[in-house]
User: What shape does this take?
Amino acid sequence: MSFQLDCFFSKVTMVWLISTTMWIYKYLMSGHLFQPASASGRLRLCEQQQTPCTVGLCETAECVICCKGFAECRTSNGTQPIPQTLPPKTEEMLLYYSGSPVGIFKSMFKRYIDLSNVTLYGNFSFLSPETFSQHRFLHFFTLKHSLVSFLPDNLFHDFSRLVELVLPRNQFTSIPDNIFHLRKKITTLDFSHNPFDICRMTTIGEGFRRLPVLSVVRLAGLGASGNQTCSMDDNFLAPLGHITNLFLDLSESHILHRNEKLLLPLVSMRELRISKLDPYRSCPSDANSLFKNIPKSLTKITAESWKTNRPISKSCYLNETSFAPFRGLKLVGLSFRYSDKIIGDELRSSMFEGIKMNSLDLTWCC
Assistant: This one.
């Protein structure tokens, strides 16, 4: 009798262990702990969850369709750059187009009325009017590495519904005025690496004052394409001054080297990213003046991948004076990761004495 009970409890224990292990595995794979950070991550998660996916040709495009309305496609077909055989209920679309330049027309997206997130890469030359005029649920729109230089006024169904508008590496020479109709919900604008003609611009755009919930502005590469000798007005960035908790990305942009007072109006800026710069465009280091007028509201500064290709003397290195403006801040984080030759051969701790910060990242630095 005792032997039978032992066998019974052993089987129960084994079943419990197996079921518990399977539950833990499904929980980990469900994405509760590991959220996908990109489209590729999203597709991997589909595989982990064993969500039914279709991999194959959609007309002449190679597509992956899964995860409740997500589709990723790659095509070079200029006649049909947007596949028309995806499920009509597709909500998220990621498309890589590598063919000859082609415009984006309303008919291309007419089938996919439920789209909420559209990301397009490649040789798109223009956006036609009313392309998304019937898409009432579109909240996120991204167009990268394209040839687009203007946005039609009636491009979207309702500008006020957009949350993020991401247009890096296109051909805009200034911020389009019609984006300032995005008044109600827009939180993120990205115009990085567009050939802005800052020599003819008096401000970044007065319309920014009408965007009440905007918090992220990415302008990486501003003034980096043939406009490096322009002197800008100290109030060039002033239209961003009202934005509470502003995150501003000015990476790969040397406008601060020539205009040390540009950041003064940004009295509520929370985070500044100024990565991929050459701090030694002159000697002593331009960084001394770059940090001179940083706003007291800053809690995080990211200055990663600072490098120079020119020979420099030790007299040009950053020193205690360079970091003096940081002593009035309460920093959550300061990062000079992957930067080279910014403070000489030896890191002296005295440089950071008196700076209040929770973390300092000097990985592969100096």
Summary: The helical segments are 2-29, 39-48, 106-109, 255-258, 287-290, 320-323. The first helix runs from residue 2 to 29.
